[in-house]
Amino acid sequence: MRQLIERHVRFTDSAVGIRVLADWEAMSQRFVAIVPNDYRRVLEAQARMRERGLSPEEAEMAAFEENARDLARVGGT
Questions:
Q1: Same-domain status, 22 and 51
Q2: Domain span at residue 48?
Q3: At 63, is the secondary structure helix, strand, or coil?
Q4: Which of 4, 30, 5 is nearest to 15 (CA)?
Q5: Are residues 46 and 69 in the same domain?
Q6: Quick check: helix, strand or coil at residue 23?
Q7: Fewer CB atoms inside 10 Å of the end CB: C or N, the chain?
Q8: Residue 68: per-residue pLDDT
Q9: Do 45 and 22 share a structural domain?
Q10: For residues 53 and 35, is the Cβ–Cβ distance under 8 A?
């Protein structure tokens, strides 16, 4: 993340970017990860499938199939 902000500052001279980098230790603690619901569901399904003994590749495919059939994803939740 820091490299992205440094690059942004280099190209734009962003005052906000400069302030963030100047207080990186404190500011970096305020960042949060945004994960789309579908992606989160697939990651959780992959973990469940690996716990059941599937290989990483098998778990990936099984999780994809599970998520594709999941009606909850239609509602965006």
A1: no
A2: 37-75
A3: helix
A4: 5
A5: yes
A6: coil
A7: C
A8: 80
A9: no
A10: no
Instruction: Report which of residues 55 and 73 the model is more confident about.
Output: 55
pLDDT class of 67 with cuts at 50, 70, 90: confident
**Amino acid type, 36:** P
Q: What is the pLDDT of residues 25-51, one digit of tens each?
A: 999 999 998 989 888 888 999 999 999
pLDDT of residue 65: 86
Percent of the chain at pLDDT > 70 equals: 91
Amino acid (one-letter) located at 64: F
Dig out the tokens for 8 from the structure: 């942004």
Helices 37-51 and 56-69: crossing angle in degrees, nearest 10, is: 130
Cβ proximity of 49 and 62 under 8 Å:
yes
Type of residue at 23: D
Query: DSSP 3-state assignment of 50?
Result: helix
Q: How far apart are CA 54 and CA 56, in angstroms?
A: 6
